[in-house]
Specification:
Blueprint lengths: L2 E6 L7 H15 L3 E6 L5 H5 L6 H12 L2 E9 L2 E2 L1 H9 L9 E8 L7 H12 L4 E2 L3 E4 L3 E3 L5 E3 L1 H17 L4 H7 L1
Parallel strand pairs: 1-2, 1-3, 3-5, 5-6, 5-7
Antiparallel strand pairs: 3-4, 8-9
Amino acid sequence: MATILSVSGSPSATSRTARLLRHLDDRLAAQGHDVIPLDVRTLPPEALLHADFRHPAIVEATALVERADGIVIGTPVYKAAYSGLLKSLLDLLPQYALAGKTVLPLATGGTTAHVLAIDYALRPVLNSMGPAHITPGWFTLDKDITVGDDGTLTVAPGTAEALAQVTDQFSLALGGRPALLAATG
């Protein structure tokens, strides 16, 4: 199966965005993919702030992107745009780092006023990096993501179904197993 890099662009350690991505990572792994999580907030600040392309952590992140067949990019939306942290990473990657890749853009936010951030802010930047395919993305309202005291994630039913559908479309684009998709969907 495919190798998938799952990138969280959230600056928060208790991020709903990152938790949602890890939830979707489990679904993709159950479909036979090798999923590698990357939380951009764990990269050294000095490497991002000083645009240090040669910093070992940036070199490693670039190698992960090169190795991946597909990339899931998740970000919280702030002021109708993707996070500055994600922007910092994207700026440090080679111009055509996504060449030949299949990409799934996801976003979370507090209001439906930000729903177009994927198409008008994130998708053009991703497209400029040369991916083979950007699958339909999904915007999830913060209120539809609940984290229990024990850390378990619950996604509101309508949103869970939509996320399962876009995740499964992404998986199929990467050669996922349709029979397994029907059993878990």
